[in-house]
């Protein structure tokens, strides 16, 4: 059974404007690879050239930041909800 991935507005052009997609994976790294296989271009927007999540990309597993879990090695299971949230910065 797949997990639900919530796609932020800036990346929806890569998912055919879908706000959420479903993929099957055992962990966050596998989820990113599965997303890339179905929606080419997503991985390069989420990860740096070494394959690690970019600093400004926040990923939540059921509303918990994966940085406080096992980062890309965080295990996921059927029915989980993954949120991809780009960080927002700026100001005066």
Q: Mind explaining what this structure looks like?
A:
This protein has two helices and five strands, in the order ββααβββ. With about 90 residues, it is of the alpha+beta class. The chain has one domain (about 5-85): Roll (Ubiquitin-like (UB roll)), CATH 3.10.20. A five-stranded mixed β-sheet has the order 2-1-5-3-4, covered by helices on one side. A hairpin with a 2-residue loop joins strand 3 (about 55-60) and strand 4. The protein is globular. The N and C termini lie far apart (about 45 Å).
Given helix and strand content, the structural type is alpha+beta
Helix content: 10-25%
Q: What's the N-to-C terminus distance? A: 46 Å
What do we call the CATH topology? Ubiquitin-like (UB roll)
> Helical segment tally?
2
Order of helices and strands: EEHHEEE
Mean pLDDT rating: 93
Our Rg estimate from Cα atoms comes to 12 Å
Level-2 CATH architecture? Roll
Q: How many β-strand stretches?
A: 5
The share of residues in extended strands comes to 15-25%
In oligomeric terms, what are we looking at?
single chain
Largest sheet data? 5 strands, mixed
CATH first level: Alpha Beta
**Which strand order do you get reading across the main beta sheet?**
2-1-5-3-4
- The total tally of domains equals 1
Give short descriptive properties of this protein.
five-stranded mixed beta sheet, 92 residues, 2 helices, globular, Ubiquitin-like (UB roll), 5 strands, alpha+beta
Question: What can be said about this structure in brief?
Answer:
The chain is of the alpha+beta class.
Could you outline the blueprint of secondary structure elements for this entry?
Layout (H helix, E strand, L loop, with lengths): L2 E4 L13 E4 L4 H11 L3 H5 L10 E5 L2 E2 L15 E6 L6
Parallel strand pairs: 1-5
Antiparallel strand pairs: 1-2, 3-4, 3-5
């Amino acid at each position: 059974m797949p997990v639900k991935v919530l796609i932020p507005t800036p990346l929806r052009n890569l998912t055919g404007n879908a706000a959420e997609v479903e993929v099957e994976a055992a962990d966050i790294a596998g989820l990113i690879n599965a997303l890339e296989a179905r929606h080419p271009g997503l991985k390069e927007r989420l990860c740096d050239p070494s394959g690690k999540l970019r600093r400004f990309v926040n990923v939540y597993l059921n509303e918990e930041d994966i940085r406080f879990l096992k980062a890309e090695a965080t295990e996921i299971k059927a029915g989980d909800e993954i949120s991809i949230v780009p960080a927002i910065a700026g100001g005066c």
